[in-house]
Design goal:
This protein has about 575 residues and is of the alpha+beta class. The protein has three domains: about 240 residues, Phenylalanine Hydroxylase (Orthogonal Bundle), CATH 1.10.800; about 150 residues, no CATH class; about 90 residues. The strands form four sheets. Strands 7, 8, 9, 10, 11 and 17 form a six-stranded antiparallel β-sheet that branches. Strands 12, 13, 14, 15 and 16 form a five-stranded antiparallel β-sheet that branches. Strands 4-3-6-5 form a four-stranded mixed β-sheet. Strand 7 and strand 8 form a beta hairpin. Helix 9 runs antiparallel to helix 10. The longest helix is centred in the N-terminal third of the chain and has 21 residues. The radius of gyration is 29 Å and the shape is elongated. The mean pLDDT is about 90. This is Phenylalanine 4-monooxygenase. GO terms for molecular function: iron ion binding; oxidoreductase activity, acting on paired donors, with incorporation or reduction of molecular oxygen, reduced pteridine as one donor, and incorporation of one atom of oxygen. Keywords: Iron, Metal-binding, Monooxygenase, Oxidoreductase. InterPro entries: ArAA_hydroxylase (IPR001273), ArAA_hydroxylase_sf (IPR036951), Aro-AA_hydroxylase_C_sf (IPR036329), Aromatic-AA_hydroxylase_C (IPR019774).
Length: about 575
Amino acid sequence: MSTAITSNPLIDRLPTHLRQFIKPQDYTDYTPINQAVWRYVMRKNVDYLSRVAHSSYLDGLKKTGIEVDNIPSMYGMNRILQEIGWAAVAVDGFIPPNAFMEFQAYNVLVIASDIRQLEHIEYTPAPDIIHEGAGHAPIIANPEYAEYLRRFGEIGCKAISSARDYEIYEAIRLLSILKEAEGTPQADIDAIEKKVEDLQNDPVEPSEMALIRNLHWWTVEYGLIGEVENPKIYGAGLLSSIGESAWCMTDNVKKIPYSIDAAYQGFDITKLQPQLYVTPDFAYLSQVLEEFANKMALRTGGLSGLEKLIKSKALGTIELSTGIQVSGMFTNVIEENGKPVYIQTTGKTALSYREKELVGHSADYHAEGFGSPVGKLKGINLAIEDMSPLDLKAYAIYEGERVTLEFEGGVTVTGEIITGTRNIQGKIILISFKNCTVTHNDTVLFQPEWGIYDMAVGKKVISAYSGPADVNSFDMISHVPSSKTIKAKRSAEREELENLYQTVRDIRAGKTATLTLDSVFTELQQNHNDDWLLSVEIVELLHKENNADLLDKVMKHLDDLKNRRPKIAHLIDGGLELIFEKESVN
């Protein structure tokens, strides 16, 4: 089992800002109890989901190398996932939504490598290897769904966030960590739950990221497929929860035909979902995604796209009609008749074309910000970008000429043209001036003493989206989560119990064990009388050995446990049902 970050060509091409979230999977961190939790959930899942999950599920388990008896290793998963064009990386719990989706765009599955506690075996709000490995991985073996997931990541990572989105993300991440950690005071959990609830209920207009996260939740995480009256499960949150996968199939959960309306339906990560959406097929998921993307600033651009970027207070990009891309922190836009006529960034800004930084226009060169008019020249029907070389010369837009360009929105650029940069089609996308003054009515926007003025050319803003055009233009090693997952506490008592679990695991595998099942059970009763899962595993082995006397003792112990701990009675019964092949369990 590898403890390094296992390679795969898809991982090798990940940009640096995504690599910061990857951590090695140390397989030795998984304890015998962890392995037993994985095995219990997977045996229950395979048994139950074979009847209620989409037909891709069981086939996908085989194709992605997911075993029932062993927590998957990244090495094994990457070796097999490579065959279907995907890869997997380990991360520490929740990562920022933009990063999560961008991994998907690169066909890389993000797997939180920790595993839930035995006490949370049915469901945990924290992402874990059961959720990711047993939930997400099998379904991506379906090519149609895999393409939806990749496309979702490609579009989703461009969604513009708000500062509030990141605050919600940090709060939910901390909540998931505290709820999964052993011994967290209830008061701490209550406090962070209230913060999450207050943030989610805050009546503000949702950002693009908030809306597309809703679509992600109701499809990738909690999606149903088929007929509303008789749906199948494909969402990873349901596939990995032995409690909610059964609950969701009852009439207690409302089933709604999937549509773009799901983008406006929020969710509570800490509770069972009261309603779920049913898509008729995977192709329809892509149809709704494109419908949503058509409403995003990524495709609409314009004044509203710029305003979204300004409100986000984060690195973003606009693209003009010539294809030139401006990436930076947008802080101001001058508008005229509902259209942007001048855009401004503050701080490091880079200029690109087709996602490749223009030579000489790095973030270091434009370190103090960037500003440029947008639109057509006043009184001239022909936009600069549409002018032929003869047109440009006729209007004195020519190297070495001193020119005054008056734009329709009231912006005036006066200066001596140094040079112009053209795109591959030959259109002017950038003009550089010296001794330049830029004004909007009576407001001075640029002065000659500030140096060279670079003017982006474009009659309109056709796109606005989160992040840079060229990921290499900026140092994006930032926004690493401030909270870290909390590991299970070690104690002598815990180690003793882990050793008992390991002994049973060795016996099942036919290995030499230091204790007999009788001795293990005796020690379990004496020192760990509240543990239930190991007794179920012992029953499984005794049933195979036809050891009726000891089996009777363990079954009586489990009956006693069910009486003492009624909340886990159904878990015990669920394990016994698998062993006795649906015989009546009393």
